[in-house]
Specification:
The protein is α+β, with helices and mostly antiparallel strands and about 425 residues long. Helix content is about 30%, strand content about 25%. The protein has two domains: about 200 residues, Enolpyruvate transferase domain (UDP-n-acetylglucosamine1-carboxyvinyl-transferase, Chain, Alpha-beta prism); about 210 residues, UDP-n-acetylglucosamine1-carboxyvinyl-transferase, Chain (Alpha-beta prism). A four-stranded mixed sheet has the order 20-21-1-22. Strand 4 and strand 5 form a beta hairpin. It binds uridine-diphosphate-N-acetylglucosamine. The site of uridine-diphosphate-N-acetylglucosamine has 20 residues, from helix 1, helix 5 and helix 6. The site of uridine-diphosphate-N-acetylglucosamine (UD1) has 20 residues, from helix 1, helix 5 and helix 6.
């Protein structure tokens, strides 16, 4: 089993380069099967979620070749509709985007239920299903095919529809867009998610010839168009990776320029760092410099759909708030249970009290300890905590981190962090 070994105390300094957005890439790759042809997709992060998706694309008959470190060529000329088994779909959450794209392309999808991080007892997909059904799909197509472990969707013809999402959902918004772009007629998604990756997918689909308006607002309108074509594209920078390094800079009281970012996407993160007394300068169109010195102030955060504070940044801020003087709070309003990382931070001496959806953090000093990553962003929080703790932190279950952060060890080392990856051959992950 591989682990990260972190020795805290070094300030992060210098420059760090952000990779392409995971959550945009994991939607755009499945979208490529909507039209046959050759795509050159730039700014694709080299992370295990992407490798899992290229495996799925290859299973469907696509060819995937890395042209350079971040450019992926995908040839979908020979794609066919095939069942995606659990061995492929459980590798990541975004495998369920193939339900939308297979349905959009072939009027049929058979995809085992997805994997990914768990943030509560269940991670429902009822609104995805309701959306597909509104477009004319039957799920399952017959009672005999009903199976809790596999999603089977079939339509004679997909027809545009008015779809109101009861709750703002990134996944449902994206999946419905994927199914609706080639449907006959107009689809309206009301109460749609407005995240940057939703917009990036819409821009990509429009480059393929789709007619999507309103992405980035809460009403997305799609005029169905069967004649889509392959295209080249460059994926936006990763908002959450950028935010993670900004927080790491603040937590280590460093001075770090975070490059290849869209500052607009970082506004809610920047605002909360400034609340804590961190200096954030927007240098130009694509970099920010974060610097912090001495004691920081506490702050109060509530996670919300974009443009609110992203839930995917709350655990990293949790680690930072442990180092701020006084009492801070985080209210999680997107997921039922996203505070499991606080138990790991407690092993490092953190003073955190969780009551329902609110966690309060009492500033203190952290000490190195043996901890695990409960999920992707929780893993990032463990690294940040390790970087500002006294002594050695040993972090297990790092496969969660490697799903979403490209070369995090190398990038942090280049900024002065004492972090390395080590193999522990005798130990099993459990
Ligand atoms: C995506 C992100 C994830 C992020 C989340 C919220 C990807 C691959 N993952 O996850 O990192 O934390 O957005 O920003 O992009 N819900 C339902 N029914 C549904 C779907 C969702 O009730 O059918 C609920 C969820 O339980 C949750 C809320 O809606 O409480 C938001 O979930 P959603 O935006 O769908 O998250 P994901 O797309 O799964």
């Amino acid at each position: 089993m591989e682990k990260y070994i972190v020795h805290g105390g070094n300030r992060l300094t210098g420059k760090i380069e952000v990779s392409g957005a995971k959550n945009a890439a994991v939607a755009i790759l499945p979208a490529t099967i909507l039209a046959s042809g050759v795509y050159n997709i730039e700014n694709v992060p080299q992370i295990s979620d992407i490798f899992a998706l290229t495996n799925i694309l290859q299973t469907l008959g696509a060819e995937c070749v890395w042209l350079d470190h971040s450019t992926l060529q995908i040839d979908t000329t020979h794609v066919v509709s095939r069942t995606l088994p659990a061995s492929l779909s459980k590798c990541l959450r975004a495998s369920y985007y193939f339900v939308g794209s297979l349905l959009g392309r072939f009027n049929y999808a058979k995809v085992a239920t997805p994997g990914g991080c768990q943030f509560g007892a269940t991670r429902p997909i009822d609104m995805h299903i309701k959306g597909f059904e509104a477009l004319g799909a039957k799920i399952p197509p017959s009672d005999e095919e009903a199976d809790d472990e596999i999603i089977i969707a079939k339509a004679e013809n997909l027809l545009g529809a008015y779809i109101y999402l009861d709750k703002v959902s990134v996944g449902a918004t994206i999946n419905i867009m994927l199914a609706a772009v080639r449907a006959r007629g107009r689809t309206v998604i009301e109460n749609a998610a407005r995240e940057p990756h939703v917009v990036d997918l819409a821009v990509f689909l429009n480059k393929m010839g789709a007619h999507i308006n309103g992405a980035g607002t809460n009403t997305i309108k799609i005029e169905g168009c069967p004649d889509l074509h392959a295209t080249d594209y460059s994926i936006i920078p990763d908002q959450i990776e950028a935010g993670t390094y900004m927080v790491a800079a603040a937590a280590t009281r460093g001075e770090l320029t975070v490059c290849n970012v869209i500052p607009k996407h970082l506004e809610s993160i920047t605002a909360k760092l400034r609340d804590c007394g961190v200096t954030v300068l927007e240098n130009d169109d694509d970099s920010v410099t974060v610097s912090a010195n001495g004691p920081l102030r506490p702050c109060h955060i509530k996670t919300q759909p974009h443009p609110g504070f992203p839930t995917d940044m709350q655990s990293q801020f949790g680690a930072l708030l442990c180092t701020c003087t006084g009492t801070s709070t985080i209210t999680e309003s997107v997921w039922d249970d996203r505070f499991s990382y606080t138990k790991q931070l407690a092993k490092m001496g953190a003073k955190i009290n969780v009551t329902g959806k609110i966690a309060s953090f009492e500033g203190t000093s952290l000490n190195g300890a043996e901890v695990i990553c409960n999920d992707l962003r929780a893993g990032a929080a463990m690294i940040i905590a390790g970087l500002c703790a006294q002594g050695e932190t040993v972090i297990g279950k790092i496969h969660h981190v490697e799903r979403g952060y490209e070369n995090i060890v190398g990038k942090l080392q280049a900024c002065g962090a004492d972090i390395r990856k080590e193999n522990f051959p005798g130990e099993e992950e459990n």
